[in-house]
Amino acid sequence: MRRLATLLLIVVLAMLAGCASAPKDDFGAQRQAIIETALGQLGRPYRYGGRDPSGFDCSGLVQFSYAEAGVIVPRDTKSQRDFGKTIELDQARPGDLLFYRFERGNGLHVGLYIGDGRMVHAPASGKQVSLVAVEAPEWKKRYVETVRLLR
Q1: Structure pTM?
Q2: Is 19 a catalytic residue?
Q3: Which of 109, 111, 114, 134 is catalytic?
Q4: Those residues with Cβ within 8 angstroms of residue 151's Cβ, 6 or more apart along the chain or in another chain
Q5: At a CB cut-off of 8 Å and minimum separation 6, what does 49 contact?
Q6: Residue 126 and residue 129: Cα distance in Å, rounded?
Q7: Which CATH number fits domain 27-148: 3.50.50.60, 3.90.1720.10, 3.30.70.3280, 3.40.50.620?
Q8: Where are the domains of the chain?
Q9: Which of 42, 38, 92 is CA-nearest to residue 61?
Q10: Which of 27, 28, 67, 91 has a Cα-to-Cα distance from 37 of 20 to 30 A?
Q11: Distance in angstroms (rounded) separating the CA atoms of residues 96 and 87
């Protein structure tokens, strides 16, 4: 039994050592926290101007998810778009913002990329926070750009 405990301790220490050697500038843990927060809001109602679990609009969901991970971002979609660095969609990593245009004029919609070609977003009045495939035709034709807030 003692031998098993020693072996288990060695395995745990090796795993911890592997984690300690990961690059510190990767923001991996922060990105994970942002995504976990956003996914935790699935099913919450859309509410115009909403920025907490009682209801979200698209930019409110982004702001809330980032704030829960300790990152302060602007409140509205235009400011969120301007706050980060534009990247190509095929370079998107979890936590990056995807912007879409549904209305004529300057109206933008934002979603949080979660990986695997999907994003979480607060769609519109009468709907709930949900997941969508970014390659779906209704999203591809409205795509504007991808923005990275965490460098």
Answers
A1: 0.81
A2: no
A3: 109
A4: 27, 85
A5: 57, 60
A6: 10
A7: 3.90.1720.10
A8: 27-148
A9: 38
A10: 91
A11: 9
Tokens of residue 45, six digits:
């109602």
Confidence at 20, pLDDT banded by 50, 70, 90: very low
Average the pLDDT over each of 1-5, 55-59, 60-64, 107-111 and give the range with the smallest value.
1-5
Catalytic residue among 34, 38, 58, 98: 58
27-78 pLDDT, tens digit per residue, is 799 999 999 999 999 999 999 999 999 999 999 999 999 999 999 999 999 9
The amino acid occupying position 15 is M
Q: Spot the catalytic one: 111, 121, 134, 149.
A: 121
DSSP 89: G
According to DSSP, residue 44 is labeled P
- Give me the amino acid identity at 142: R
Count of other CB atoms within 10 angstroms of residue 57: 24
